Amino acid sequence: MKLKLFWATLQFMTRLPVPAKWAEGIGFRQFGRGVPGFPLVGLILGVIASGLFIALSFSGGGMYIGVVSYVLVLALLTGGQHLDGLANTCDGIFSTHQREKMLKIMQARRLGTYGGLGLIFCIVIKILAVVELAYHPPLQLLTLLSCAPIVGRTAVVLLMFEQHYAHDNKGMASNYIGHITSRNTLLTLLIGLLLVMILGDWQGIYAMVVTMLAIFLLSLYFNYRLGGQTGETLGAAIEIGEIIFLLTLALIWE
Fold first, then answer.
1. pTM (global) more than 0.90
2. Residue 254 — pLDDT band, cuts 50, 70, 90?
3. Each residue of 103-136: pLDDT tens digit?
4. Average pLDDT, integer, range 234-239
5. Which residues, listed in sequence order, are joined to residue 229 by a DSSP beta bridge?
6. I need a labelling partner for 247 at 20 to 30 A (CA). Which of 4, 19, 155, 161 fits?
């Protein structure tokens, strides 16, 4: 059952071709128990994206093609769902409306000015951060870039544990927000930390600690502005977590 739960989590969080029978019997209401698999999902995404980056950068494709491919592949493998959450969150949070109107804006399907700006800055900052890192040895670069999706998906548990679901109508995110046990929260954090310790050495650990602190503060901000968390804020936290991790690496890795 646990393996099926992981496949269901991978199927839900990515666009990877997971056979339906591998996740057979797992309903949406059970998804909350699959949170400890989030760091492993990040590992799979990170290895694919960073592997392609290394292959293109050091086989004649050029560094910039490799960098763009890394950012693009992460977006494509997730179906852009976290970027969509970031855009919707920006549209709502940066509006001048009250909480109820902000939440309605975040659920709207159209892209607003703030959402567009959020997407542009997110993609540009990721590209610039990876460019700054791209001059380091290929193997070390492969392992550290693999950590970014791991850390983003580990940190997002901070927006789930002991949190309030802000929307009145129950969406998919309501299976996660406020329904994650302390055991699964701790297990998620430990798995993420262990993976980063193995792959990222002290640079990865330092960048992860900075990221976790930033995402915790972000969760407090979302609580203050929205009265809780939503599926949109979860997606935003994953993207922002990846950005902060990459930026911190770019600053400390010499």
1. yes
2. low
3. 888 887 788 889 999 999 999 999 999 999 988 8
4. 95
5. 165
6. 161
Three-state SS sequence of 223-234:
HHHHCCECHHHH
91 and 114 in contact (C-beta within 8 Å)? yes
The token duo for 180 is 């994650």
Burial of 217 by CB count in 10 Å (0-12 exposed, 13-18 middle, 19+ buried)?
A: exposed
Cα torsion 241, 247, 252, 253 to 10°: value is 100
Measured CA to CA, the distance from residue 210 to residue 196 in angstroms comes to 13
Q: Rounded to 5 degrees, what are φ and ψ at 165?
A: -80, 120
Cα 54 from Cα 119, distance rounded (Å): 25
Closest CA to 172 of 235, 110, 218, 126: 235
